[in-house]
Every structure is written in structure tokens, then in C-alpha cells.
């Protein structure tokens, strides 16, 4: 907890990020009122609004400490709180075949996406962010992996910005697979859960198809989100390879606090508590909303720390990597539903 002096120093920047967050949530609320669901979520809107504001105005020292605090410490708290939404019972209900398929899909796409990114000359950290974002849960995965590998604000913002664009396109285009590929509701639910980035987007992509598609898609998506914990823990083992400092950083053996960051331990602890019934159902919703609000606020902070000219320099390679990774994910998902023999 920051001291009184530190709090007074970071308060202006946090309030600024909070103002951007409120605007983003208001825009999402208007989308829901007009269209029935948000095509662009508040999390994406926050980073876009923050970047727009940063383009028009450069914050001075009065704001920078609070913006930096929101982008790092508050983001870590948000990631930790995600663990309270995870239940092992829900995962086991999906069946071992589907669980193995989801885990295998995530692993294959992470490695393939990273390789594609490096082939297209993306920096290592950017390639990791895109690989994890596409493979697991889009923006949330990018946000969770970023502090582990020491990603910079412009790298996080670039990965999220382009991933967000394709996320919207997927929501709109994915239902076309039902008539084109002859998918049943169950099959389509699996494909949607494996390819769409965020849970609200899964709902938007499956509601037009049917109730079974919504239920299966949501379940598969939640199982996929669970992969975030093991992936981030694994990233702590290789994270120093991506941090600046070259050979010295790689040669230094990290301590336990560096190996497994506190917020990852908190994530795993809350997930275990949830599975053991130590977290009442009545608390899960509020904790999830707090995590969501903090994540949106952190994304606003990331946007406020971005020079939009950097986005332009990395754009083409990022777009190609995200697109190629997403197409691979869709292809593997279609193969998986055929292998599982679901009807």
C-alpha cells in the first residue's frame, strides 16, 4: 500500500486513467443499449482513448507516476483477482478429450505464433505477447504476460490494438462457418470458444447460432482462460531472456520472487480457494468486476504512455503475425471438432 506521500504523487495520474476508464465504460454501455452487445469492449476502448489523448497531449511529471503505477501495480492486482473466477469442477465437466484438445491447441498456437512473429522480424517480446494473446484470451493474456517478460508500454499497446481489431472481425465473420462448414451448434461452440478472444465476444459470436452454441462456447472459453495460469508461470522461467540486459540478464539466476511473481502466486492461490469452496459464490461476481475495472484502468494507462508513431513502425509485421496466428487457430479448431466426433 503506498504511503501518504506516494499516494499524493500518484493520485493525479490514477484519476486521469480513471476518467478515461469511465468514458470507455460509457461508450460500451451505449453500444449495448443500441446493438444489444458491445462490438468494441471497454478494455479496447480505454487503450484507444488513452492513445488518442496521448497523441494530442503529452502528460508532464504531475501525471506520469500515477500513469506508470496504474499500468503496472494495478494491472498485477487485476491479474491476481482473475483467479477467484476459476473453478476446477467446471473444468472437469468438459471431458478429458476436449480438455486435452484445448491444452494442445493453446500450446501449438503459442509456439507457431511466436515462430511466425520472429520470421516476420518482430521483436521477441512482441512475438510472445501476440502468441499468448491469440492462443489464450486476447487482451487479458497480453496484459498478464507483459509484466513477466518485461514488455514495454508501446509493445503491449501495439499487440492489443491490432489483436482488438481482428477480435471484432472474428465476432462478425465466425458465424459464417456454420453454413460453410456444416457445423452443428456444439461444434460451432467449440470453435468459437477456441478462437474468439474474450468471453463477452464469445457470447456475441454464439448468440446468433443458438443456446447450445452459447453454453459450449462459454465453457470452452473458460477452460481456455484457465491455461493462462500455467502459461504465465512457464513464462517466469524464460522471462529473463526477453528482459533488456542481454547476456547478463540471461546468466543471472532469478530468485523465487522473480521466478514466480507475487500476483501469479495470488492468482493460483485464489483459484485453489475457489475450487475448495473457500470463496463464496456471492463474492465471485464482485471480485470479477473489480478485476475487470482495474484491467480497463490499466489499459487506459498503457494508452496514455504510448507514442502513436511507434504503432505505425511495427504495424505491418504485427498485423501479419496476428492474422496468420488467428487463421492457424481457426484451422486447428475445425480439425479438433472433427477428431472429437462431436455432433
UniProtKB/TrEMBL annotation:
<feature type="transmembrane region" description="Helical">
    <location>
        <begin position="12"/>
        <end position="30"/>
    </location>
</feature>
<dbReference type="InterPro" id="IPR018383">
    <property type="entry name" value="UPF0324_pro"/>
</dbReference>
<dbReference type="Pfam" id="PF03601">
    <property type="entry name" value="Cons_hypoth698"/>
</dbReference>
<keyword id="KW-0812">Transmembrane</keyword>
<dbReference type="GO" id="GO:0005886">
    <property type="term" value="C:plasma membrane"/>
</dbReference>
<keyword id="KW-1133">Transmembrane helix</keyword>
<feature type="transmembrane region" description="Helical">
    <location>
        <begin position="318"/>
        <end position="340"/>
    </location>
</feature>
<keyword id="KW-1003">Cell membrane</keyword>
<feature type="transmembrane region" description="Helical">
    <location>
        <begin position="222"/>
        <end position="243"/>
    </location>
</feature>
<protein>
    <submittedName>
        <fullName>Putative integral membrane protein (TIGR00698 family)</fullName>
    </submittedName>
</protein>
<feature type="transmembrane region" description="Helical">
    <location>
        <begin position="98"/>
        <end position="116"/>
    </location>
</feature>
<feature type="transmembrane region" description="Helical">
    <location>
        <begin position="128"/>
        <end position="150"/>
    </location>
</feature>
<feature type="transmembrane region" description="Helical">
    <location>
        <begin position="36"/>
        <end position="53"/>
    </location>
</feature>
<comment type="similarity">
    <text>Belongs to the UPF0324 family.</text>
</comment>
<feature type="transmembrane region" description="Helical">
    <location>
        <begin position="255"/>
        <end position="273"/>
    </location>
</feature>
<feature type="transmembrane region" description="Helical">
    <location>
        <begin position="293"/>
        <end position="311"/>
    </location>
</feature>
<feature type="transmembrane region" description="Helical">
    <location>
        <begin position="156"/>
        <end position="178"/>
    </location>
</feature>
<feature type="transmembrane region" description="Helical">
    <location>
        <begin position="190"/>
        <end position="216"/>
    </location>
</feature>
<keyword id="KW-0472">Membrane</keyword>
Amino acid at each position: 500500500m503506498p504511503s501518504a506521500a506516494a499516494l499524493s504523487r500518484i493520485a493525479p495520474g490514477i484519476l486521469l486513467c480513471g476518467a478515461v476508464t469511465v468514458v470507455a465504460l460509457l461508450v460500451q454501455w451505449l453500444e449495448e443499449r443500441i446493438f444489444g452487445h458491445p462490438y468494441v469492449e471497454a478494455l479496447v476502448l480505454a487503450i484507444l482513448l488513452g492513445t488518442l489523448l496521448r497523441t494530442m497531449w503529452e502528460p508532464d511529471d504531475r501525471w506520469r507516476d500515477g500513469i506508470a503505477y496504474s499500468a503496472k501495480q494495478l494491472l498485477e492486482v487485476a491479474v491476481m483477482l482473475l483467479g477467484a473466477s476459476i473453478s476446477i469442477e467446471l473444468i472437469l465437466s468438459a471431458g478429458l478429450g476436449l480438455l486435452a484438445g484445448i491444452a494442445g491447441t493453446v500450446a501449438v498456437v503459442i509456439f507457431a505464433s511466436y515462430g511466425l512473429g520472429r520470421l516476420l522480424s518482430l521483436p521477441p517480446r512482441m512475438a510472445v505477447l501476440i502468441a499468448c494473446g491469440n492462443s489464450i484470451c486476447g487482451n487479458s493474456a497480453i496484459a498478464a504476460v507483459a509484466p513477466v517478460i518485461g514488455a514495454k508500454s508501446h509493445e503491449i499497446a501495439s499487440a492489443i490494438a491490432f489483436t482488438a481489431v481482428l477480435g471484432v472481425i472474428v465476432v462478425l465473420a465466425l458465424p459464417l462457418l456454420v453454413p460453410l462448414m456444416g457445423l452443428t451448434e456444439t461444434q460451432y461452440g467449440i470453435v468459437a470458444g477456441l478462437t474468439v478472444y474474450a468471453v463477452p465476444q464469445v457470447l456475441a459470436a454464439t448468440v446468433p447460432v443458438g443456446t447450445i452454441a452459447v453454453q459450449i462456447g462459454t465453457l470452452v472459453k473458460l477452460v481456455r482462460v484457465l491455461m493462462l495460469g500455467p502459461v504465465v508461470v512457464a513464462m517466469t522461467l524464460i522471462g529473463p531472456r526477453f528482459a533488456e540486459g542481454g547476456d547478463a540478464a540471461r546468466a543471472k539466476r532469478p530468485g523465487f520472487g522473480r521466478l514466480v511473481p507475487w500476483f501469479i502466486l495470488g492468482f493460483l492461490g485464489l483459484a485453489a480457494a475457489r475450487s475448495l469452496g473457500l470463496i463464496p459464490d456471492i463474492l465471485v461476481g464482485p471480485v470479477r468486476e473489480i478485476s475487470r475495472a482495474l484491467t480497463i484502468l490499466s489499459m487506459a494507462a498503457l494508452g496514455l504512455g504510448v507514442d502513436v508513431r511507434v504503432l505505425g513502425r511495427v504495424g505491418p509485421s504485427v498485423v501479419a503475425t496476428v492474422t496468420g496466428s488467428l487463421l492457424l487457430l481457426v484451422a486447428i479448431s475445425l480439425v479438433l471438432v472433427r477428431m472429437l466426433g462431436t455432433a
